[in-house]
Specification:
Elements: E1 2-5, E2 19-22, H1 27-37, E3 56-60, E4 63-65, E5 76-81, E6 92-101, E7 104-111, E8 117-122, E9 128-133, E10 140-146, E11 150-156, E12 167-168, E13 184-190, E14 197-202, E15 205-209, E16 217-218, H2 220-223, E17 239-245, E18 253-258, E19 261-265, E20 273-274, E21 297-302, E22 310-314, E23 317-321, E24 329-330, E25 341-347, E26 355-360, E27 375-378, E28 386-388, E29 406-408, E30 416-419, E31 425-428, E32 436-439, E33 445-454
Parallel strand pairs: 1-5
Antiparallel strand pairs: 1-2, 3-4, 3-5, 6-7, 6-33, 7-8, 9-10, 10-11, 11-12, 13-14, 14-15, 15-16, 17-18, 18-19, 19-20, 21-22, 22-23, 23-24, 25-26, 26-27, 27-28, 29-30, 30-31, 31-32
């Protein structure tokens, strides 16, 4: 039996299944048997002649396959909409990638999953910690930490516009009574209500904007949390870098802080509770873990269509929560990962069971294991992970990918993009089945965010 993985579009025709066990000596024979078991799939993958539909691709164990390709028991077969032929009208055919680097913002554009061109470089010479295009307004936000003049947030409707035409936001900045100053703006996250955005900064604090990011207000409930004096910084400082809004419930949030753990609110930030049950801080002596408050979250994301489900890359561990962040389950130990240390994390927005990580050796050696660059994927909520490496360097490749430097473009199949401190940025237009070195020679990459560009 081979395992056939179905894209989101085909699952309703297979009684909602995302994977199906099928036998057959060839891909075509197995596909016909798949149609026999699920008649509603007839005509969706194979045409009347028994060939693959023009814009459908089939991969067997990450190798592009044809109907006549041999199939063996245990093979993994992925059916994906092909990039060839272009996207349907109104769908994304090209992508815009915003790469924040230590020496400016690079606006990259080109075909999804292919080579990208530098459309513009902005804020030259300055660290751009984070940049994104906010999907509702279309505005671009760029967080810059000027080497002399500190952190500032800039806004533009055109990512390629000259620096001087970008609007500077009023904040995030602490009120005088807080007795603190913003050191770095780690993340900007769209909220649920119209015009609402959230920002996470160092020292660990949360800010809210109600006017599309032009002005900001400190969330005092988290800043005044009684346990704050016991919070300790991680290697990158005391930073709030992950913000997970709750769909349809603006008052609910989960935030991740390095290294003060996960914090949850149900009342818009007036009161907070910690959500760290199940997390194991292996960097703390075992006898001290019962009273430990230093939980070094590296990245946390919420599943879009299953809000109770969150995934986390921890400082030594990959975890999943099934109760909105209150408790956590280890999905990194003994599940196929070469190491469970790392920083970035991406979720498939259409599939709560699918996630991607890029493992690093350990905190003492923050490079890709064995000198091989591999993205690891789970499609079963972390019960198992498998490498996606077709097109990525597999020798003498000791790279580091930071927490904000991995993103998707929301397309189907999913486009994935990540950048390394080496300055190389890699792209996949088929959910990681194949990869391309999209851009090389950039400064060290701090953040990557992508958005589809609709075809004409």
């Amino acid at each position: 039996m081979a395992t056939f993985y179905l894209p989101t579009t085909l699952r309703p025709m297979a009684d909602g299944a995302d994977q199906v066990e099928v036998s057959g000596a060839t891909v075509g024979e197995a596909l016909r048997r798949l149609e026999e078991a699920h008649p509603r799939l007839a005509g969706w993958v194979l045409d009347e002649r028994g060939g693959l539909r023009r814009h459908v691709s089939v991969f067997v164990n990450d190798e592009l396959a044809a109907p006549e390709s041999a199939l063996s028991p245990g093979d993994e077969v992925h059916i994906v909409p092909a990039i060839s032929g272009g996207a349907p009208a109104g769908r994304a055919a090209e992508v815009e990638v915003l790469a924040g680097t230590r020496k400016g913002l690079f606006v990259l554009r080109g075909p999804r999953g292919g080579r990208l061109e530098v459309a513009a470089r902005r804020f030259a010479g300055q660290p751009v910690e984070y940049a994104l295009r906010e999907p509702r307004s279309g505005l671009v936000f760029a967080s810059i930490t000027h080497s002399h003049f500190g952190p500032h947030l800039f806004i533009s409707s055109d990512a390629t516009a000259p620096d001087e035409s970008w609007e500077q936001a009023a904040g995030p900045a602490f009120p005088e009574v807080a007795g603190a100053a913003v050191e770095r703006i780690w993340v900007v996250e769209p909220g649920i209500e119209d015009g609402e955005l959230w920002a996470g900064v160092a020292p660990a604090a949360l800010f809210r904007s109600a006017d599309g990011g032009r002005s900001w207000e400190l969330v005092r409930g988290l800043w005044d949390e009684p346990s704050r004096p016991s919070w300790s910084p991680g290697f990158g400082g005391l930073c709030l870098h992950s913000i997970c809004p709750w769909p349809k419930e603006p008052g609910r949030l989960a935030v991740g802080i390095s290294s003060a753990g996960v914090w949850l609110t149900e009342d818009g930030g007036t009161s907070w509770r910690r959500g760290t049950s199940g997390l194991v801080p292996r960097y703390v002596p075992e006898e001290a873990r019962a009273t430990n408050t230093s939980f070094c979250v590296h990245k946390m994301l919420r599943a879009e269509h299953e809000p109770e489900t969150l995934y986390m890359q921890f400082h030594g561990g990959v975890y999943r929560s099934d109760d909105a962040g209150s408790t956590w389950n280890d999905i990194g130990t003994g599940t196929g990962l070469p190491a469970d240390f790392g920083f970035p994390l991406v979720l498939d927005p259409e599939d709560p069971a699918s996630a991607y990580v890029v493992p690093l050796v350990a905190d003492a050696d923050r490079v890709t294991p064995e000198g091989r660059l591999r993205v690891y994927e789970t499609r079963d909520r972390g019960a198992s992970w498998r490498p996606l490496a077709n097109g990525l360097p597999q020798e003498s490749s000791y790279l580091t990918i930071l927490r904000q430097a991995f993103a998707h473009d929301g397309g189907q199949p999913l486009g994935l993009y990540f950048g390394a401190e080496s300055g190389s940025l890699y792209a996949s237009g088929d959910a990681g089945r194949t990869w391309t070195a999209a851009v090389e020679g950039l400064p060290p990459i701090l953040s990557v965010r992508a958005a589809g560009v609709a075809s004409a």
